[in-house]
Specification:
The structure holds two protein chains of two kinds. By secondary structure, chain A is α+β, with helices and mostly antiparallel strands. Chain A has seven helices and 14 strands. Chain A has an eight-stranded antiparallel β-sheet with strand order 2-4-5-6-13-12-9-8. In chain A, strands 1-7-10-11 form a four-stranded mixed β-sheet. Chain B is mainly alpha-helical. The chains are: A alpha+beta, B mainly alpha. At the A-B interface, helix 1 and helix 2 of A face helix 1, helix 2, helix 3, helix 4 and helix 5 of B.
């Protein structure tokens, strides 16, 4: 790189660029559907990365599903995208592969970069995924009763986003998980994709998730999956305690 | 997360905060409507920035405002490894100001490619997508723009 090129690169940090204005209200106002038929035709109803900006629109009251989803973004690095059709996925027997490397609970505690939260009853199986996500499986891969994922949001995981594709039959509720912001996805199944910050797919889960509670606490993203009512899921979330190992 | 880079891109291409805000807003709305045409698996950021850049170009042409890019107020570190000194900082500041002035004088196409490559720190490939040109064109325009700048600044 020549001296001129270095000077240009240095200049990038010294230019007087105004603070980014809040674009969300104006964008949202223009995104209101022009007619119901237009909405019906739209293949992708909710927003990919664009709507991350619209997380700022939390204060706006826009009474349609899309606006509701706008308000649900950026929870623990997760994004929700509503689609008309879910992609084809392998059968449930891919579960174990999707969760990552099987380890002991003690090994997971040692490998995790943050203090894991655990239930009083130890999980039946423990896995560590490629991106450092720790999974607790209660039951078996063939008949899972409960899945708990914990993922640190510090680098490199901070650079990743988990995209969930949901159908319109999936209910998406914003919930308070004992003082932390959360989302409860229930009803129809949805699909999980791991993206990097440029929106490229890093990893796809080989399974359809069931009812899912997602929340963030202390810089860690948590996900709880199973056939659970919201109250039950919140109860389980409250029972997760730090082990005090670190 | 994309709001900042979209606005910065629009601002550096138009040199006007008002135009940048309009361009970024319009870019997000158009990107939303174009989502069905977005190819899953391809990089999202340059795709979005291309739409924003188009909007920025449209505004620049229709509004015709002067390109008013300038340095932030404050001290400027000298280039290279030299230890900063008061006179060094003044010289560095002058050097940067002459560089900004030279960028302002470039024609639009040369300025755009330098903006993408150095001020937005996009790769050649991303720059090609954003400016809707071939990668080879990015290379040749970059070389030409740098050569023009060299004739105007002592670097």
């Amino acid at each position: 790189m020549s001296e001129l090129e270095r000077a240009l690169s240095a200049l990038a940090r010294e230019l007087d660029v105004p603070e980014t204005p809040d674009l969300a209200p104006a964008v949202l106002a223009q995104l209101e559907p022009r007619s119901p038929r237009r909405v019906e035709r739209a293949r992708w109803i909710v927003a990919l990365a664009i709507v991350v900006l619209a997380a700022l629109a939390a204060a706006l009251v826009i009474p349609d599903a899309r606006a509701a989803l706008f308000r649900l973004l950026s929870i623990g690095g997760e994004r929700i995208e509503l689609v008309d059709e879910l992609p084809e996925v392998p059968a449930e027997d891919g579960l174990e592969l999707a969760l990552g490397e099987r380890v002991t609970l003690e090994e997971a505690r040692q490998r995790s970069t943050f203090a894991l939260r655990e239930l009083e009853a130890p999980p039946d199986r423990v896995y560590v995924a490629g991106q450092g996500t720790v999974w607790f499986l209660y039951g078996t891969p063939e008949a899972p009763r409960l899945l708990i994922a914990q993922s640190s949001l510090v680098p490199p995981v901070r650079e990743l986003l988990l995209k969930k594709l949901a159908t319109r039959e999936t209910r998406v509720e914003r919930v308070d998980v004992h003082g932390s912001p959360g989302i409860f996805l229930s009803g129809e199944t949805h699909f999980v994709i791991l993206l990097d910050r440029d929106g490229e797919i890093v990893e796809e889960s080989a399974r359809l998730a069931r009812d899912v509670l997602i929340w963030e606490r202390g810089g860690v993203g948590y996900r709880l999956e199973g056939d659970l009512e919201l109250a039950e899921a919140l109860g389980v979330a409250d029972s997760l305690r730090k082990t005090g190992v670190r | 997360m994309y709001q900042d880079i979209a606005f910065r891109t629009a601002y550096l291409l138009t040199g006007s905060a008002a135009d940048a805000e309009d361009a970024a807003q319009a870019g997000f709305v158009k990107a939303w409507r174009a989502l069905p045409r977005f190819r899953p698996g391809s990089p999202f950021r340059p795709w979005l920035l291309r739409i924003v850049a188009n909007e920025a170009h449209n505004r620049r042409r229709t509004v015709g405002r002067a390109y008013a890019l300038q340095l932030r107020a404050g001290t400027t570190e000298p280039l290279g490894d030299a230890a900063p000194s008061p006179e060094g900082a003044v010289l560095a500041r002058e050097q940067r100001e002459s560089l900004v002035a030279a960028i302002r004088r470039l024609d639009e196409r040369d300025r755009d490619v330098l903006t993408c490559r150095y001020l937005l720190e996009l790769s050649e490939e991303e720059t090609a997508t954003v400016l809707d040109v071939r990668r080879g064109t990015v290379k040749s325009r970059t070389a030409r723009a740098l050569a023009r700048l060299r004739t105007e600044v002592q670097l």
